[in-house]
Amino acid sequence: MKLCVALDLATKEECLNIAKDLKGLDLWLKVGLRAYLRDGFKFIEDLKKISDFKIFLDLKIHDIPNTMADACEEIAKLGVDMINIHASAGNIAMQEVMNRLDKKFSKRPLVLAVSALTSFDEENFFNIYKQTINEAVINFAKMSYENGLDGMVCSVFESKNIKENTHQNFLTLTPGIRPFGEGKDDQKRVADLIIAQENKSDFIVIGRPIYKNQNPRLICEKILENING
Ligand code: C5P
After folding, report:
1. Is 8 close to ligand 1, i.e. is its CB under 6 Å away?
2. Which residues are substrate-binding (predicted)?
3. 39, 98, 122, 156: which has the fewest C-beta neighbours closer than 10 Å?
4. 3-state SS of the chain: helix, strand, coil percent to 5?
């Protein structure tokens, strides 16, 4: 299991300071839409200069297939290690993205699919997709696996089921982690490290429990000890 730290702080400087504090640790950094729109490619470059962190650029690409493939090609040129697209863009979009990346890059980034956004409740989700969230997650996972994507962004509580319906090596990246039972903030369902491990999560995404901690490096070290030990 890998630790992925969400860089969701309000300014570039604060994000870079956290990254500097975490220098040398074996972890991934997640750069989201806000930071990328604000700070752009230079921010990715700055992070890479600090340490050889792996970078997950979380832009949740969703458009017509050709536009998605164009966008993913540009993102892959940034040299990031993992990207994501919306599964609901469909089979053709997934195929075009994967074909384009495989054709243009000898070492392409990992590509994950976003399934049901966790901000949906069942009723609002059903109004759009005519399925329960659970059914949709499994359908999206099977589609993503069959189209050659590397894994899914999902809840810890969906991770095992996704692997059982696809392949044990199909990756799951799970936000909503409170490593040692910290407060939930605005997350609805959270899991600690033990639950994440039991559910075979490959990447745990953690933001506030790390950057709001008085000693972000120490808590990361504790998490790494825990998941590696
Ligand atoms: O601070 P916290 O650990 O709750 O941050 C979780 C990170 O994971 C945030 O960047 C959030 O946007 C992201 N995320 C999430 N739930 C999802 C997808 C992404 O919390 N379903």
Report:
1. yes
2. 8, 30, 58-67, 118, 178, 187, 207-208
3. 122
4. 50, 20, 35
Does residue 213's CB lie within 6 angstroms of at least one atom of ligand 1?
A: no
Structure-token pair, residue 205: 């995404």
- For ligand 1, atom 19, which residue shows the shortest CA distance? 175
Q: Which residues contact 119 (CB under 8 A, 6 or more apart)?
A: none
CA dist 229 → 14, 76, 114 (Å): 30, 33, 30
pLDDT tens digit string along 79-117?
Answer: 999 999 999 999 999 999 999 999 999 999 999 999 988
Query: Which residues, in sequence order, are CB contacts of 51 under 8 Å at separation 6+?
Result: 19, 22, 23, 24, 25
Q: Which residue has the tokens 């894994």?
A: 151
Calpha distance 202→170 (Å, rounded): 9
pLDDT tens, position by position, 30-83 = 999 999 999 999 999 999 999 999 999 999 999 999 999 999 999 999 999 999
Instruction: Supply the residues annotated as catalytic.
Output: 58, 60, 63
pTM of the prediction?
0.96
